[in-house]
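Entry 14. Structure prediction run on the chain below.
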Amino acid sequence: MTNGRRSKVLAIGLDACDLEYLQCYLPHLPNLQKLLGTSTLTELNTTSAAMDASVWPTFMMACSPGEHGYYFPFQWHAQTLQYQRIGGGWLPFKPFWNLLRDRGCQVGIFDMPLLPLPVSSGDRVHYYHWHSQDEGIAYRDNKTPLGCQIIKKWGPSPLYYDIPVDKTAEQLERLRCAAIRSAETRGEIGKWLLEESDWDLFFTCFSELHRAGHYLCPDPAHNELPLMKSDTLIDVYRAVDRAIGTLLSAHTAQNIPVILFSLHGMGPNNSQVHFIPKVLDRLFAGPGTDSAAHSIAPQRSLFRWLREKAPAQLQQTIARNVSQSVRDWVVNRAFSSGIDWPHIPAYGLLSGGQGYIRYNIQGREKRGWLVAESEQHHQIKTLLKETFFSLRDTHTGRPLVKQILDIEEIYPGPFAKYLPDLSIIWHELAPTRKISSPTLGTLSGRITTGRGGNHRPKAFYFCNSKLPEQITRQVTHIGELYQAFNYLLK
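Output returned:
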């Protein structure tokens, strides 16, 4: 069904599609190559460097992280001292398409990542869920007649819920096949929704690139030639390319503007996040501790110990056989229990690989005691930065930390209090197992997420309909991309 009222726009998100990888293999992706041949590719600034998962809320709400407060799908709630799903209304959600709705536009949203579920469909905005990287059971929130039919017609996504643990070669092969099937099915579902629903602006997003990028990202040391046998990620890109061809074959998608975009990229994993708990434990409890951080005990948690020591296959088996609420409870016990709140001045936050630290600020955290902007607060801040900058890879002598960002300084706003205080940016160094510091000595650890790839701050978009120079000058950041939709829907 079509409404025939105004020009239509199809928006296709390529979640964590890496620009360099895409350009390298573009000759093997005919549908993407054809679209790019009729448009100009524009690189965008992104919030991914500071907080990688903040990109989708920044895009959807057209404002900075300090103005929306979202940085992770399972993020810290300072008043409950636990991690919570970003749904439930504890952070406001005001997407830019609500303004389009108020102008009379019909908007369809199919699997937008990091939506604060549940969201309600209305007269002109309709949400359809099947699967996204951060939520494998989003389909349970389908409330529209068409949405309810998706699982009946196609079943759940074969990708299931992401469990970041070490994977065997057999499991990686199953993941590759599942990502291919998921992408191809997404193309079929998307075409069906395009033809059966009433829309002026329709969004869909391929999260398969995100999942596959984490686990199938090729090792640059063995990727000198395109399409090497060791590079299985290209198979998923090809499946997405075929699915895009399926979308564009919908009769309602003929001869309309199409915008493809990616809000961050994916490259070889350089995360050293596995050392953050160890550094904080030793910094705030070991010999030679600065007087500003005296009498501080490290986090003691049986669940944290089990998460670090239990075999990956056992963790994966357990996780696949329990509910999301049980998984969330276990993660909370591993990352938030055993903290000595009356004494700890700063603590690490759960992330997908970035280094997040938050101060235990009085009046902000439920059990905070550190007075904001006090002399002691500044001492702790200096101590943390000096310590992390001093870390070296024991084998090569190279520094681990490239930059430490004060989040509220770069993203001020009324919701900055929900964000990490510090974000540690790692050097381009493969995850190491042993580090040293003049003050902390030697620390050993191993990354156990199984991820060979992780996010990097590369974003872009292209449109097969020529945009005026005024719009292209204005759209330089992922939070400004909505202006292109606004223009095309006039």
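The first strand starts at residue 9 and ends at 14.
Filed with the rest of this week's runs.
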